[in-house]
Amino acid sequence: DADVTQTPRNRITKTGKRIMLECSQTKGHDRMYWYRQDPGLGLRLIYYSFDVKDINKGEISDGYSVSRQAQAKFSLSLESAIPNQTALYFCATSDSKGGSYNEQFFGPGTRLTVL
Amino acid sequence: AQTVTQSQPEMSVQEAETVTLSCTYDTSESDYYLFWYKQPPSRQMILVIRQEAYKQQNATENRFSVNFQKAAKSFSLKISDSQLGDAAMYFCAFSTSGTYKYIFGTGTRLKVLA
């Protein structure tokens, strides 16, 4: 079984709809991240959480919100989706006790299309 | 602010040949980490190789090696004996020891020609 899972894997929605992307991990990591990937722009950080009560904005948080329901679950919401939020979304985790590399482990991604 | 630049949007290499992907970064930090991730058509982000800035020795993982030039702020990836399965998007990423956040480059798409 995958260590970091994301649901759904693909989603098509309409402008104005509320969308939630979910991320779960079985790695026991305390840190979780949400990124979006756009062609030619690489991956950009939306939100990150260092534990259940510590949530921080990344470089492109406008239009998004998150919820850390438990150490293993981190959800990303688009309150009112717009077409320029069409992108590939990744969840990632890392372990604060995992040594000095800061290595992040990625989920399989969610392809979101907003019409 | 830290930045990561990958100046080659696309590269091609013949099977069994060697290719080098470029990455430069800008930071005022002295303690940081650098990574190369591979993203095949499956979309999964796969860690290829990593380097700690304080280590002068270049990291190597089988056919993958890096040329880390700290003074020049350069971190290139060399793939030897290229295989068809190496075809993917490659991302360079930077992280400082304090922030634990990644900053990614824009990626290089590698094509491997049979």
Description of the molecule:
The complex is a heterodimer of chains A (115) and B (114). With 115 residues, chain A is mainly beta. Helices cover 0% and strands 56% of the residues of chain A. Chain A is built from no helices and eleven strands. Chain B has 114 residues and is mostly beta strands. Chain B has strands at residues 3-5, 10-14, 19-21, 24-26, 32-39, 46-52, 60-61, 64-69, 74-79, 88-96, 103-104, 108-113. In chain B, the strands form three sheets. In chain B, strands 2, 5, 6, 10, 11 and 12 form a six-stranded mixed sheet that branches. In chain B, β7 (60-61) and β8 (64-69) form a beta hairpin. Chain B is globular, with a radius of gyration of 14 Å. The model of chain B has no long low-confidence stretch (mean pLDDT 93). At the A-B interface, β4, β5 and β9 of A face β5 and β6 of B.
Q: What is the topological layout?
A:
The complex is a heterodimer of chains A (115) and B (114).
Chain A: E1 4-7, E2 10-13, E3 19-25, E4 31-38, E5 42-51, E6 54-57, E7 65-70, E8 73-78, E9 87-94, E10 105-106, E11 110-114
Chain B: E1 3-5, E2 10-14, E3 19-21, E4 24-26, E5 32-39, E6 46-52, E7 60-61, E8 64-69, E9 74-79, E10 88-96, E11 103-104, E12 108-113
Parallel strand pairs in B: 2-12
Antiparallel strand pairs in B: 1-4, 3-9, 5-6, 5-10, 7-8, 8-9, 10-11, 10-12
Helix content of chain B: under 10%
**CA-atom Rg of chain B in angstroms:** 14 Å
Helix-strand makeup class of chain B: mainly beta
Question: What is the percentage of strand-forming residues of chain B?
Answer: over 45%
- Biggest interface and which pair forms it? A-B, 26 and 23 residues
Largest sheet composition of chain A: 7 strands, mixed
Termini distance of chain A?
Answer: 33 Å
User: What is the overall number of helices of chain A?
Assistant: 0
SSE topology string of chain B = EEEEEEEEEEEE
Shape of chain B: globular
The portion of residues forming beta strands of chain A comes to: over 45%
Global structural class of chain A: mainly beta
Distance between the termini of chain B: 41 Å
Using the CA coordinates, give the radius of gyration of chain A.
13 Å
| Number of separate strands of chain B | 12
Tell me the number of helical segments of chain B per DSSP (H or I, 4 or more residues long): 0
Largest sheet of chain B: 6 strands, mixed
Order of helices and strands of chain A: EEEEEEEEEEE
Question: How many strand segments of chain A?
Answer: 11
